Amino acid sequence: MKALLIVDLQNDFLPGGALPAPQGNQIIPVINQLMNQFSLVIASRDWHPKDTVHFDKWPVHCVAETKGADFPAQLDQSNIEQVVQKGTKDSDDGYSAFEATNLNLDNYLKKNQVSELFICGLTTEYCVKTTVLDALKLGYKTVVIKNAVAGVHAQPGDEDRAWEEMKNQGATLVELA
To answer: What are residue 83's DSSP bridge partners?
Structure first.
């Protein structure tokens, strides 16, 4: 079975948010369309406490129960069957969706007989890349939907290096509509 995993499509990662991916809004219509092609759709989200070591490296973002941590209103959430939360502890970065604390994502996918995981969302260089690499390590056929992913561009060249690393580790990179 194939599943779609939407990584961290949250207000704080969109233009106007605390840690924005400049092209983040452009992927929302693509993701809304993609969801109709999958019988299982999962979304991850950062759900940070107010005080976390993660904020030593990054601006304060996606604090649990805030507007910044919410999914954007433009995202059609009706097809999302499960939401996993990560980065929930004060000592936890929580980059990968597989680090979710409210659900063991690997067990959930296996229970639903998922063997092929299509990944999209934010941001290319961090949470998408880390989730993709973990999916590959766990043995999932992993497809990254390039036109449904956007980068934060914190450091020049990071996004290109992330694409290269995902590809070199075995991810398939595609564009879907």
So the answer is: 43
